[in-house]
What we know:
This protein is mainly alpha-helical. It has one domain (24-111). It has six helices and two strands; from the N terminus they run ββαααααα. A two-stranded antiparallel ribbon has the order 1-2. This is XRE family transcriptional regulator.
Amino acid sequence: MRKKLHTKIHIYGWSTRKAVATDKAQRDQLRDRMRMLGCSTQQIAAEMSRRFNLRPRAAWRHALGWTQWKLAYEYNAVHDGATLADNRISEYENWPHGGTQPSLQYLVNLAAV
């Protein structure tokens, strides 16, 4: 769900624009708050999925605070010979509403990261 980046506010008859937190900033704030409360990565991922309407693969990545590039790097480091690119992660995260269906082997390997 994309939020507006600005909202108009009126001060003493003058109209100005006030920045609204981006989705990334909101996810970071939620993750930090939940970690301070002692929540597990699984709990954070579940809340991110619910609150931001994320697919499970994207929710877990955001719960870890990783970019798609970071996930690709970690995946390739754990699995010798793997050459997963960050754009492929985007395709997998968007499936089934677009993108590419991830293979069962990819999902098994992803769980090991």
